[in-house]
User: Fold this.
Amino acid sequence: MISHHLGLDYALNPGWMAPYVAGLSAGKARARRCQSCAATSFPPLRVCTCGCLEGDWTDLPGTAQVLFRTTGLDGDFGLVHFDGANTKTTLRLQAIPATETRGIIAASGDNLPVLRLTALAEERDG
Amino acid sequence: MQVRDVTVTGAALTPFNRRKDGTGFRDWALSAFEMALERSGLEHSDIDALYVASESDFFHLQLNPASVLATELGLTGVAATRCEGGGASGQVAVHTAARAIQAGAAKHVAVIGIDPSASSLSGDAVRTLYGFSFDAWTDGMTGLTSTALYALSFQAFAAEHGGTEADLASVTLQNRSNACHNPGAHLPRRDSPQDIADSPAIASPYRRLHCSPLSDGAAAIILSRTDATPRGRAGAARIAGMGAATDHMHLGARADPGFFTAKQMAMQRACAEAGATPAEIGLAELYDAYAGTQLQAIAALGLSEDVSRDLNDGVFAPAGRCAINLSGGLMGQGAPVGATGVGQTATCALLLEGRYHPALQPDTLPRYALADTHGGVCTLSAVTILERAERAA
Assistant:
């Protein structure tokens, strides 16, 4: 057997998604509103489902409804609907009890596109 | 443009498992290729082009694997193309190769699928890499795993279309039971529903036994222009129709996150090309990355109008109207990613010729068999319909 270690440090540019990534870093749900049909996507869609390429950035309230959740080895994840968005999204659920179906976006920090939903009460207490 | 008919003149798979014998992907590729070539009745010099399916350089640490395998297989000089479509890589390679023959660009081509998904990296490393096979910017960086995304998709499917824990157990037990008759299978097991319930939770509702394993292995097929089929291979199955389609990469942007729309579109395209209907499919090798994925596939492919009912009625059992995953599928036979789609096509071809493993070979051959593969959570779907030759056994 040939044992070989390979370490890779990537420097990835988010390109057009830079406002989205910056929003996550600051704990804001920065969505894309279509200039043609006003549909709001979060995470943002570069091309709206109506086919329009033009959109504007808009900050959603950051609260979301958990539609489905899965629990296991790597933690809790959910399919959620952010208030004000026309799309749903998958994300990590952070300290949201199984009985709780709403949460608020958590800041990712470090300019990372990490999308997490945390408990509303925790956010208010914080 | 005249479209040429394509025949699967050779087909072979290595065992799918976790290799502990010191062999590597080049060895498996050669083994599968030589077997398929021998069955085709062709020589190395007859091969015009090589198509290689491999999902990721991360697995084998070999960029540009198609040209490397051209040398390793004794095919230096042929045109070589590497095909990638996530979990659908193998089927994408089959399509690309068959289209080349249809277009008149080649007479005989080799399609090789490989991946050392089990032995070259740790399970944790592969799990992390798979997270980047969805949208790396949203799902991958967030830490969403393949199993978590599939689990959420299945929950959405079950809420809208039905699907119970008992159904998940039924698929799991059937596929692994089929694998017990496949000498090349990775997980030939006879578990009980309680064994499944007692296995570790991975991402609810999925437990370890609901999941397909990571496997090593290779598969190969030789495709030939039907009017150039070698003497003695008149009984070989032909490719009747192919279809591929994509869905939105984000589950949450899909109108129905539980329904495999891309698979439905791919199947419709393949059926139109074949002049067949889903009801005429008598054998199917489906992409059962997880137990629920098979239920979602059956629904999207139009193989049933009531998946749970037909599952419980034995429609998809070995003696059923449409036997599914006689090989054991990904869950039982195993899943060396690039080899999966090629292996499914090889399996269908061997079944339609009456040359599959004796204990799994149906007594009566249907007219059509289906090979179904996808990448992402059915973000990219590719399906192939094969047709039995008039002179098949």
User: Anything to note?
Assistant: The two ends of chain A are 52 Å apart (CA to CA).
